[in-house]
Write a structure and sequence with these properties.
6-stranded mixed β-sheet; elongated; alpha+beta; 137 residues; STM4215-like; single chain
Length: 137
């Protein structure tokens, strides 16, 4: 594995394939998200957590668990928020992004649903996977 964060573009590609009408982007966390006055339903993906789990071979081979946040943002929660959340869940739960990764599964997020001062509602969905990182590759 030459890119430790290679799951981000894979998740983005999967979501764009499954939800072609939705604006999908990546970020480096909630503070970096920019809202617009005419905010359309959108999805922002970012790394929420990264945990080394176990290591072998004097630390050169290690199992890593990553949690990826898929943040659903909508202006009007009455109009399609639940449907969009369901579509994200169906697109990612159980999906295996490649032979290097375990299938994604939903986990509890460290974030709570929230509404911004601009009236945009945010629904955090976190998905976790594991992979083996080998320093000799």
């Amino acid at each position: 594995m030459h890119n430790y964060l290679m799951l981000a573009p894979l998740i983005l590609s999967r979501l764009r394939e499954c939800l072609p009408q939705v604006e999908i982007s990546s970020s480096w966390g909630v503070p970096a998200i920019k809202e617009t006055p005419d905010q359309q339903p959108s999805i922002v993906v970012f790394l929420e957590d990264d945990q080394p789990v176990q290591q072998t071979a004097q630390g050169t081979v290690q199992k890593i668990t990553q949690t990826w946040m898929v943040l659903v943002a909508v202006r009007d929660t009455e109009e399609g928020a639940g449907e969009l959340i369901s579509r994200v869940y169906r697109a990612l739960a159980g999906w295996r992004p490649g032979l290097l990764f375990e299938p994604l599964h939903r986990v509890r997020s460290s974030y709570k649903p929230d509404v911004s001062p601009n009236g945009v509602s945010y629904f955090p969905l976190s998905f976790e996977t594991s992979f083996i990182f080998n320093t000799s590759e």
